Every structure is written in C-alpha cells, then in structure tokens.
C-alpha cells in the first residue's frame, strides 16, 4: 500500500469534511429545524386523514388500483410506523370512513387542509435553501394539484411493483434461501430513499445537483431506519406512555414519531444544502484570482 498517497488523500479530504460538517451544524442551528419539525408535525397530524382520504378516493377511480388499498395500508403502517401500527391503522380507517360520508363542502375543506401540508413543506424546504417559494399562483396550484392527483397513482404503481417483486422473491427463495427475504426487507428503505431524493430535487426553487440530493437521501434513509428501530425498541421495553396515558397512548406516540421523522427529513435537506454550499465555497477557492488591470 502506498502510504504517501493515502496521506495525501487524507490531507486533501480532511479539511473538506471538516468544512462540510461545520457548515451543516451551523445551518441546522440557524434554521432551528426542531421548531420547523414541530410545526410540520402539527400540520401533518391535521392533514393526515384528509390526505389519506384524497389518496384512496383518487386510487379508487382507477380499476387497476382497486386491490391496492389493503396492500398499501399494510405496507405503510408496518414499515413506517414503528409501534402501535394496528391501533393507528384502525383509527385511521375509522376516520377516513367517517370523512368519506361528508358533503361536498366538507370534502373541499379537507382538500384545502391536505394542500396546506404540501404548502408548508414547500415553504420550509425553500427557507432552508434560502430561496423564495413564491411562484405565480397558477404555477403553484398546478404543482400542488399534480402532487395530489399524480401522487396516489405513483404510490399505487409502486405497491403493484412491490407485490410483483415479492412474487419473484418468493420464487427465488426456492433456489437461494434467504435472498428473497433479504431483498424484501430493502424495499421500504429504497422507497423512502426515492421519496427523499425526489423531495430534495424538486421542491427547492433552485437547481440541486443529483449527487447532492442522493447523498442527503441516503443520510436521511439510514437515519430513518436506525431511528425507527431504536424508537420501536424504546417504546416496547419502556412502556411509560402506556402507563401514563393508557388507551390514549397511541396519540403522543404517533405525534412523537411524526415529529422525529420530520427532524430526519430536515436533517437530510440541510445536509444536501450543505453539500451545495461546500461545493460552491471550494469552487470559489479554486478559481484563480483576477488581477485588476491598471
């Protein structure tokens, strides 16, 4: 091994890594991501039922997605809600069923609440990127409406593809035991990473390099999976919430998990933005200084 080359690479990369994490920590403090995450968690809980209702209503309009609802509910609640998934699933199903019996004005109001969540995410991420999220009202409405309408279709398609992959994995299990199960466990992680990547690439009202967005998505996904396992372990072994709140324990547990999830999403956004800022700083340092003409 060429130790001189290793030392040269170390001395070159070490200052860049230190600079990156210095920018990252500074930005997290300046943007007060814990406060922003609390605001988004509150809006998310208000928008959760309307968003789910709109999603299932749009999916039910397409016969190809008729059998997807049950699979989608199972996929989300068993992979992204680490504890009390059965209880949350039961309550959400009841809420959505009650909301579907509302009149046109009530459904329109729920749609507005669902759009509020998209608007708040848009404004929060653009504030992190130091850009203005104020677009023309027609353009903004078109984007939000596209998320509302195309989002359920993409989700339904992804669930169908996941079911198809599950069938292939079960078939491959006969020839390579353990491989199919291992690949299935990676599907939720890849789905989360793809969602983070799209979020960091499309939402900011400025150009974001794909390599920076994928780096932030990988960080957010790894942190999400580790936190999900740790959160489930804590709630299972230290059931203090159930002792205090009893049957209502699912409410603070769900709010806490949504709050932590938004912190992880914003951390990934801050890391993506920090990569861009560090790249711009390094590019400015590498540019030759122009000597003013006399």
- Overall radius of gyration: 22 Å
Helix-strand topology string: HHHHHHHHHH
Mean pLDDT across every amino acid position: 75
Query: Rough shape?
Result: globular
The total beta strand count reads 0
| Biggest β-sheet strands, sense, barrel | none
Helix content: over 70%
Strand-residue proportion:
under 5%
Multimeric status of the protein: single chain
Low-confidence parts lasting 5 or more residues at pLDDT below 50?
none
Give the number of helices: 10
**Span from first to last CA?**
51 Å
Helix and strand content put the structural class at mainly alpha
Describe this structure in words.
It contains ten helices and no strands. The protein is an all-alpha fold and 294 residues long. Helix 3 crosses helix 6 and helix 7 packs across helix 8. The longest helix is centred in the middle third of the chain and has 37 residues. The protein is globular, with a radius of gyration of 22 Å.
Structural features:
single chain; 294 residues; mainly alpha; 82% helix
Q: Could you give a quick summary of the protein structure above?
A:
It is built from ten helices and no strands. The protein is an all-alpha fold.
List the topology elements:
Layout: H1 3-31, H2 33-60, H3 68-79, H4 85-99, H5 104-128, H6 137-173, H7 179-202, H8 210-237, H9 240-245, H10 250-286
Helix pairs in contact: 1-10, 2-4, 2-5, 2-6, 2-10, 3-6, 5-6, 6-7, 7-8, 8-10
